What we know:
Number of helices: 0
Oligomer: single chain
Number of strands: 11
Order of helices and strands: EEEEEEEEEEE
Structural class: mainly beta
Distance between the termini: 40 Å
Mean pLDDT: 96
Shape: globular
Radius of gyration: 13 Å
Amino acid sequence: QVQLVESGGDLVQPxxxxxxxxxxxxxxVSFYTMGWYRxxxxxxRELVARIMNDGSPDYADAVKGRxxxxxxxxxxxVYLQMNSLKPxxxxxxxxxxxxxxxxxxxxxxxxxxxx
Length: 115
């Protein structure tokens, strides 16, 4: 059973930075994609960023230039570096992995951007 465990969510002031981590129980290069989604209260879950198994990234327009997705293969970990955070980035952030045709999700980590 694939397990994804997120960490790094916190309360941060506008303009601040956070780094989220997602550790996988499986070799991350085996995933078709790994990515981060977020869900704010009253909103649908939306894609934030993802990284393909060849290492190429993809970002939502709302976070381009502010967020960076990366991976550390030997640690089976995917990161989301979030800079210049805005109140509208407040949400529960979920790690997602597409593994042999199935979607797997982490439990989520709360990011709150507020002064």
